[in-house]
Amino acid sequence: MAAFVGAVKLFISLVLWLNTLSSTQGARDFYEFRYPFIKRASSFSSSSSFSSSSNDEVRYDYIIVGGGTAGCPLAATLSQNFSVLMLERGGVPFSNANVSFLRNFHIALADTSPTSASQPFVSTDGVINARARVLGGGTCINAGFYTRANSDFLRRVGWDARLVNESYPWVEKQVVHQPKLAPWQDAFKDSLLDVGVSPYNGFTYDHIYGTKVGGTIFDRFGRRHTAAELLASANPKMLTVLVYAPVQKVLFDKSAGKRPKAMGVMFKDENGNQHQAFLTNNRRSEVILSCGAIGTPQLLMLSGIGPKAELQRLNISMVLHNEFVGKGMADNPMNSVFVPMTRSVEQSLIQTVGITKMGVYVEASSGFGQSQDSIHCHHGLLSAEIGQLSTVPPKQRTRQAIEEFIKRKRDLPREAFKGGFILEKIAMPLSTGHLNLINTNIDNNPSVTFNYFGHPRDLRRCVNGIRMAAKVIQSDRFTNFTKCDKPTVEKLLNMSVKANINLIPKHTNDTKSLEQFCKDTVITIWHYHGGCLVGKVVDPNHKVLGTRRLRIVDGSTFSESPGTNPQGTVLMMGRYMGVKILRRRLGKAAGV
């Protein structure tokens, strides 16, 4: 018996010892075993594999720039039949606890270190925002909600319905889960139905008018499953993924009298050393940009494709003039109404959504997972005053505005971390803006303007959305849950203005005028899109107009954000476009 007890103690000690090992090392061992094709950029050699030239220089059938939400499923699909090199500017998500766990959602966004999975930026509108900088892209830093696009979107973009309906399940089977509904979300669901957002459509991925529970990329243990996991479906012998490999420009053959032909890319590794990677000589080989709505138009311009004046301003050698690169930038404006609680509430991100017929989506979040030490460092978005105010236009960068911003965070009531928010978001905003280069450094953010509420219809919709959110909070179902007196609209708005974090100066009539409240408290839920629109920058097959062997597969081609939340459709898009490319090139022999 003593020997048995001793053996058990030894086993427990061994388990505890293993658990105390570096989580980073453990995760690294795991991903190197499951994804042996993921390597650091400094390991790149132009003579390692996939040789197709007489001098033994490596060439690839496809070079994908950006290992994000669309890039990962695209690479996994194309690698079934062809050699693929995918270049990702960030690191891997597997060893990052702030990425992997729901409880750390807010901390991941607040991490402004150079190697963070989240790169903050502030639009010229004064709204604090973020873009992903990690393998898996936005699926590593978002709120996890998964839904399919509305049928009208799919009809407008002209995608093949049958292939779409094959591509969504390919994603869903690998990374999507049915959520366990949190108490806050359950009360929110009942309240939506009480105020007329009906019928109740239950749990579904489909975009249907009424109230529904959507999918999530968080499993029942609160672990996030990102687009990077779709790489497990790749052919490991045909795929190379380089991390910490920011691409600086696409390389072109600009022979006289011919359209510019993409030949490869120039990138740097984590040590700052320059590399070049090239396509095979096959006319169907392609460089495919999947850098997202911020990164793709930025990289196109840095590569010499964009408005002539913009390129000349920074002495960029022009490959092709296209005035529409960087135009049509849009973000779905979101406003939040704070709901106080006298007790702690379970953390939940987006699980339930109300899809209204007035052009507004209503969602909810609750609780915060961060430690007591970090509570006042940020408010679920970003700490803009640490290093990011340099990107804000001088007219909005006043000392008073900065001090008031910091004070609002410091003075946030403790109750803010015990309650939650009802969120309203404008569907298909008509307001659009633009993206411009600040300098020629790919690591730096460009200047982005979304022009929130520039169109009066967007503002009218926001007002209706705020009224809807207030009705939800005032409903008997919700007040029974919160155990608080039914608040007046003015009280709700007053608390919400104090809890809101952006760099837009506030006005004294914020709580009197719903229009002013919308303008002053607008924030983002990271659904920005545009900059390389179909018909303007790319053709219907997403090939860049006026060029050869260059394509774009990401949300920069969208003129609207699909459904209530775009990640499901962007994931599907990567698979869809990959299959479409293979079938056009190989026919039935593609096998997909």
From TrEMBL:
N-terminal signal peptide: 1-26
UniProt entry keywords in alphabetical sequence: Disulfide bond, FAD, Flavoprotein, Signal
Residues in Glucose-methanol-choline oxidoreductase N-terminal domain copies: 292-306
Any one GO MF annotation of this record: oxidoreductase activity, acting on CH-OH group of donors
Cysteines paired by S-S bonds: C462-C518
Chain positions recorded as FAD binding sites: E88, R89, V134, V247, W526, H527, G555, P566, Q567
Protein name: Protein HOTHEAD isoform X1
Gene: LOC107897399
